[in-house]
């Protein structure tokens, strides 16, 4: 009697296949190539510093105790401003997508505000909220608010209408359809918008800290740039990059928890 073979389940969709350590390997190879290029003068020290020199500058920053004096204020400003902007952006985006009156009233205003460079509004925020923390929180909040609204509105508006009609045919209430169909269906788009908003928040954090901040990664980068200290400059840029990677990792954990139904 022939041996029975299990048939492979094919209806998996496009499932992401994890390849451990490949990203880290690519990053290490790039660092090694840069080290070789700068050490043997294939790349001028005036354009790029040696990775080993950047690492030495980071160690010096850590040993001096200034690392956390710059990092903690920056991270606090980013978290407070981004949380405020993203929370309000999600709420407003959902309301605009669900209610025609609000969509007609506020969507043109959001669309007009979205392309405005938020950095250009920093002097105005300084006048309104002062040169201390208030203006920095306001700038980051506004910068993360508008892309979150647009992403949330688009995600809710793009939920499959057939699923909504199916819920209506089964007699589900409006609130049940929103809770069980619209919100779960829009979560991938909303989370993608949060990723973009956090990246914008980091950019605005640097801009805000370059004006009237004694401590912060932006102030550290500004000081290093004014002295043309490329090692310290790249330390600041690396810290900002690490902050972005860390926040992206947190969003990925949130995606894994909230979007487990996609697997």
Write the layout of secondary structure elements.
Layout: H1 22-39, H2 51-63, H3 66-98, H4 100-113, H5 122-129, H6 133-157, H7 161-169, H8 174-209, H9 217-226, H10 230-258
Helix pairs in contact: 2-10, 3-4, 3-6, 3-8, 3-9, 5-6, 6-8, 7-8, 8-9, 8-10, 9-10
Could you please describe the fold and organization of this structure?
The chain has helices spanning 22-39, 51-63, 66-98, 100-113, 122-129, 133-157, 161-169, 174-209, 217-226, 230-258. It starts with 21 loop residues before the first helix and ends in a 5-residue tail after the last helix. It has a single domain (54-262), classed as MetI-like fold (Orthogonal Bundle). α3 runs parallel beside α6 (133-157) and α3 (66-98) packs antiparallel against α8. The chain has 263 residues and is mainly α. Helices cover 74% and strands 0% of the residues. The protein has ten helices and no strands.
Q: In percent, how much strand structure appears in the residues? A: under 5%
> What is the second-level CATH architecture?
Orthogonal Bundle
Give the overall shape, derived from the CA principal axes. flat
Mean pLDDT over the full residue set: 86
Helix content: over 70%
Low-confidence stretches: none
Report Rg.
24 Å
Count of helical stretches = 10
Distance between the termini: 36 Å
CATH class categorisation: Mainly Alpha
Count of DSSP E strands? 0
Q: SSE string, helix = H, strand = E?
A: HHHHHHHHHH
Please name the CATH topology.
MetI-like fold
**What is the count of distinct domains?**
1
The CATH superfamily appears as: MetI-like
User: How would you characterize the largest beta sheet?
Assistant: none
Structural class: mainly alpha
């Amino acid at each position: 009697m022939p041996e029975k073979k299990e048939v492979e389940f094919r209806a998996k969709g496009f499932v992401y296949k994890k390849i451990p350590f490949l990203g880290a390997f690519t990053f290490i190879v790039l660092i090694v190539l840069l080290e070789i290029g700068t050490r043997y003068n294939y790349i001028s020290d005036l354009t790029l510093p040696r990775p080993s020199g950047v690492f030495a500058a980071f160690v010096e920053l850590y040993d001096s105790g200034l690392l956390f004096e710059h990092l903690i204020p920056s991270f606090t400003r980013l978290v407070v401003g981004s949380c405020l902007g993203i929370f309000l952006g999600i709420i407003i985006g959902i309301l605009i997508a669900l209610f025609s009156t609000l969509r007609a009233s506020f969507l043109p205003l959001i669309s007009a505000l979205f392309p405005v460079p938020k950095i250009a509004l920093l002097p105005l925020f300084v006048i309104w909220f002062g040169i201390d923390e208030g203006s920095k929180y306001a700038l980051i909040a506004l910068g993360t608010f508008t892309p979150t609204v647009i992403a949330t509105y688009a995600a809710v508006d793009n939920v499959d209408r057939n699923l909504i009609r199916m819920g209506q045919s089964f007699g589900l209430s409006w609130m049940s359809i929103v809770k069980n169909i619209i919100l779960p269906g829009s979560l991938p788009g909303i989370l993608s918008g949060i990723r973009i908003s956090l990246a914008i928040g980091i950019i605005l954090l640097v801009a805000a800290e370059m004006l009237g901040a004694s401590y912060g990664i932006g102030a550290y980068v500004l000081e290093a740039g004014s002295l043309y200290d490329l090692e310290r400059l790249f330390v600041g840029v690396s810290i900002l990059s690490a902050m972005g990677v860390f926040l992206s990792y947190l969003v990925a954990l949130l995606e894994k928890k909230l979007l487990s139904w996609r697997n």
